[in-house]
Specification:
Bound molecules: zinc ion
CATH architecture: 3-Layer(aba) Sandwich
Low-confidence stretches: 1-24, 277-290, 299-306
CATH superfamily: Collagenase (Catalytic Domain)
Number of helices: 4
Mean pLDDT: 83
CATH class: Alpha Beta
Distance between the termini: 43 Å
Order of helices and strands: EHEHEEEEEEHEHEEE
Length: 306
């Protein structure tokens, strides 16, 4: 098993984001199996090396950590995560109501609160967890959310994801309006759902996948045309999912169970795994190669100037 992490932390002042960054024509970006270099700027172009990530069947499952947040009760969190994924799965692909062929299901609460992927047939959960007392990502900016996607590095098939929301450093709000001192949690979940679905940051400033959110701003809640295009071309309304390069396959029926099966606790061990040889590596097949990829949504402003 090979693991590496990338944190794409793009923090920028609002004026810089909107006025002085040249963007390409509207284009959605899919996360790929190859990590971009640290010098890569997702505001300017898509990173296309490697194979794009994709979900195999027509459903994915998520689980909100049962503790939820002091700011966000469990029931509200489930509703908001559901809405976040529904923004994507309800995209109108043909102007006549044809929907994409991937949707999210709530697998129920879990006690696990760590980002992990249990391999070799062990059970998993795709957890959504609020960080209440500190944020591990020590970036120079103020990260709102972080989605870690684990995938097969040979094929791009997504095995699972975990979503962390920074409730330690920011006031979160939802509903018809969001105060100017708070961040729109509905928009955060739509953005992070996009990462969980396999999309990367977008070059279009109006896109939900643009990597910056301003306090009080509700713009990320609704997909723009580039987001809709990405969802509808990747998870087509005819039931075919895109592997990139024009290749598609017929997606199997909905199965929201995580890979290996669902479990509410952390650290499940594969039944066949012998601890004595766990470090000897995989044998055959590519499924043991999984790579977590982090993608962060950051807040605008607050960049320290010298
Ligand atoms: Zn992001």
């Amino acid at each position: 098993m090979r693991r590496a992490a990338l944190s794409t932390l793009i923090g920028l002042g609002a004026a810089l984001a909107l006025s002085s960054v040249a963007t390409t024509a509207a284009a959605y970006c899919r996360t790929t199996t190859v990590l971009p270099p640290s010098s890569y700027d997702p505001r300017k172009s898509c990173w296309t090396d490697g194979k794009p990530l994709f979900w195999r069947n027509r459903c994915l499952g998520f689980s909100v950590n049962q503790a939820a947040s002091k700011q966000v009760p469990y029931g509200d969190a489930v509703t908001l995560v559901t809405q976040g994924f529904a923004a994507w799965s309800n995209a109108d692909c043909d102007g006549a109501g044809a929907r994409p062929s991937l949707e999210a299901r709530d697998n129920g609460p879990v006690t696990c609160d760590v980002v992990e992927y249990n391999k070799n047939g062990a059970r998993n959960q795709n957890v959504v967890v609020f960080r209440e007392s500190g944020w591990a990502a020590k970036d120079a900016y103020n990260t709102l959310g972080l989605t870690t996607v684990t995938f097969n590095v040979d094929t791009g098939e997504v095995f699972g994801f975990d979503m962390e929301i920074n409730a330690a450093d920011h006031k979160l709000a939802w509903g018809a309006t969001v105060p100017k001192d708070s961040y729109d949690l509905e928009g955060i979940f739509v953005h992070e759902a996009g990462h969980a679905l396999g999309f990367a940051h977008d070059t279009t400033a109006t896109s939900t996948m643009f990597p910056v959110q301003k306090p009080g701003d509700l713009a990320l809640r609704s997909l723009d045309t580039t987001d809709v295009k990405g969802m509808c071309e990747t998870y087509r309304s005819d039931g075919k999912h895109s592997l990139g390069g024009g290749a598609v396959f017929e997606a199997p029926a909905c199965d929201p169970a995580p890979r290996g099966g669902f479990i509410t606790t952390c650290g499940d061990k594969a039944p066949e795994e012998d601890p004595g040889c766990a470090a000897s590596g995989r044998t055959g097949g590519g499924a043991g190669l999984a790579l977590p990829l982090l993608a962060a949504l950051t807040v605008a402003l607050r960049r320290r100037r010298r």
